[in-house]
Amino acid sequence: MTTPRDTLPETLSGLHEPAVVELPPGRPWLALSELNRLIRQQGQARPLARAWLLDQLVHAIPLPADQEKALMAAFLERRGITADDQVPAWLAERNLAFDDLRILATQKQRLQRLVRCRWADEVEVRFLQRKPELDQVVYSLLRVDDEDLAAELHHQIAEGEADFDSLAPIHSAGPERHCRGQIGPLSLAAGHESLVSRLRRGRPGQLFEPFQAGDSWVVLRLEQFLPAELNEATRERMMGELFDEWLEQRVRLLLEGQPLPPLDALLALLQEDPAP
């Protein structure tokens, strides 16, 4: 059992500041001044601001009563709660209110509804902006310290005398030596600029002349180019990115003490949504 604290901060009057913030469920542990100090000292202002804004938003997004009820039932069933009379004990054990259960069970669907209403029409533009970073490649690579060695290894590969899978474990200085010289699928944005420029304009199977990248000489062959597709998963990702940027703007305003734009116009879009 958790014992009460006897070292709470003192106010100017010399009285101990009351503990009002619960850490153990149902037991106030921190004074408000301690909470404010810890939030700033431990860098928790941003995640707390984000959590508050999400909570505000989720509470404002409506769902039909039958959908909410079904989501709550499914949420509880996944946790082994199948009867109504089990719910109060489950909530009490976690120090949760019924409204907490309602939000925990439905917040994902509430946010999805808002995100699709607000940002679905911007997905194509976002995808085109991000496509160069979303395209992926598979390539084979050797990194060596010596230009002459790079030229010799390139010659062996070009003439069919050897290949990357046999040369990389012996000669390559990078981590590709542990995967037989092959890297990917990997985003084009993740590579060194000298690699990216060649891979972006290359064709599958093309072996590039040795070139210098940083302190290494590189032998490179493009194996596969995997262009990003605007499928359902990518649509969800683009909408999620747009939502995160919008939310981050609100976090910044809150942390700067600036007024938050009202949610009325955003929430009004939900009234036009025919299928929540």
Automatic annotation (TrEMBL):
PpiC domain span: 132-224
Pfam families noted in UniProt: Rotamase
UniProt keywords, alphabetically: Isomerase, Rotamase
Membrane-spanning parts: none
InterPro entries the record matches: PPIase_dom_sf (IPR046357), PPIase_PpiC (IPR000297)
Secretion signal span: none
An annotated Gene Ontology molecular function: isomerase activity
Name the UniProt record assigns to this protein: Peptidylprolyl isomerase
Organism annotation: Cyanobium gracile UHCC 0281
